[in-house]
Automatic annotation (TrEMBL):
NCBIfam families in the cross-refs: drrA
A GO CC term attached to the entry: plasma membrane
Annotated keywords: Antibiotic resistance, ATP-binding, Cell membrane, Membrane, Nucleotide-binding, Translocase, Transport
UniProt-recorded name of the protein: ATP-binding cassette domain-containing protein
InterPro entries documented for this protein: AAA+_ATPase, ABC_transporter-like_ATP-bd, ABC_transporter-like_CS, ABC_transporter_ATP-binding, DrrA, P-loop_NTPase
Length: 318
């Protein structure tokens, strides 16, 4: 068995809504898979089926080699889950929550206390440790939720929108926490609307739309599908725009896109930096001042628009 998570043709219907419509996924052991899709695409439904909380209508799913329908207890024993909805106790303090879950994972009292302190520190909750989550901000609750699923390094970790509502610094801490678990051998599946999150963290990305995987690959492969890199140049003087456009056209073999209001020109740059290294001396020889020059890769947002015709996070048309 080469993959920690396998879904084949998963189907799930809620009334008139076909939430999953033949969903396929493979996540190799020890890797991070980003499941990317707009609202209602079926991400949480897939995660709930894979973590054995919801029965599929059809298809098959294996986690750690075990069938989620036939062997749910074996599956549950091997996974950690941070769902989209919080799971912590509202009345217990943050520290007491972590210690309680540590004890549920069979840590000794002392081990549970030590691990709780480590996680409170890692997730910036040390000061709030004595307060119950009902007095936490949204981002703090989310961090406590994540800390709970990080108590043990589970073989397979499911994170449903782990960093929604978090500020940038805490998002980075969560990413570091995930990387740390993965370096210890955990396989992670995370759902996200944040394209940079998939880009930062995921070895592979599966794009889901209307209950089906519509694209799969590394972040770099998905970007490459959309036509590769652009060379972006900003010049110093308006008068030089026509000459700059002529030079770029001869280097790239195609007319550049010119934005005169910001003195910027862009051409397709293939997959290398040849266009960039040719442009600098050619502009210098023509006396054109370069203010800024760079190779720009398409963002995953642009990939998403290319694949689905709409930006990630936009409501899918019914
Ligand atoms: N328990 C349920 N009862 C009825 N419909 C449901 C239920 N759970 C999900 N759905 C519907 O199934 C579809 C997929 O929902 P799901 O929660 O899997 O989407 P998602 O990709 O996680 O979206 P989001 O990005 O908003 O979290 C949606 O149309 C949703 O309304
Ligand atoms: Mg969801």
């Amino acid at each position: 068995m080469d993959a920690a998570v396998i879904a084949e043709g998963l189907r799930k219907r809620f009334g008139a809504t076909q939430a999953l419509d033949g969903f396929d996924l493979r996540v190799p052991y020890g890797t991070v898979c980003g499941l990317l899709g707009p609202n209602g695409a079926g991400k949480s439904t897939a995660v709930r089926i894979l973590s054995s909380l919801l029965r599929p209508d059809g298809g098959r799913a294996l986690v750690g080699g075990f069938d989620v329908v036939r062997e749910p207890l074996r599956v549950r024993y091997r996974i950690g889950l941070t769902g989209q909805q919080p799971a912590v106790d509202e009345m217990l303090s943050g520290r007491a929550n972590l210690e309680m879950f540590g004890r549920l994972y069979h840590l000794s009292k002392r081990q549970a206390r030590v691990r709780a302190d480590e996680l409170l520190e890692q997730f910036g909750l040390t000061e709030a440790a004595g307060k119950p989550p009902k007095h936490y901000s949204g981002g703090m609750r989310r961090r406590l939720d994540l800390a709970v699923s990080f108590i043990m390094a589970p073989p397979v970790l499911f994170l449903d929108e782990p960093t929604t509502g978090m500020d940038p610094r805490h998002r980075m801490e969560v990413w570091n926490g995930v990387r740390q678990l993965v370096s210890q051998g955990t396989t992670a599946l995370l759902t996200t609307h944040y394209l940079d999150e998939a880009d930062q963290l995921a070895d592979s990305v599966t794009v889901i739309d209307r209950g089906r995987a519509i694209a799969q690959g590394t972040p770099a492969q998905l970007k490459a599908r959309l036509g590769g890199n652009q060379l972006d140049v900003a010049i110093g003087h308006q008068d030089d725009l026509p000459a700059a456009a002529r030079i770029l056209a001869s280097i790239a073999g195609t007319e550049p896109e010119v934005r005169p209001e910001v003195l910027r020109l862009a051409v397709p740059a293939g997959d290398g930096v040849d266009a960039l290294t040719a442009t600098v001396p050619a502009f210098a020889a023509a006396g054109i001042t370069i203010v800024d020059i760079g190779i720009r890769r398409p963002t995953l947002d642009e990939v998403f628009v290319g694949l689905t015709g709409q930006p990630a996070g936009q409501q899918a048309a019914a």
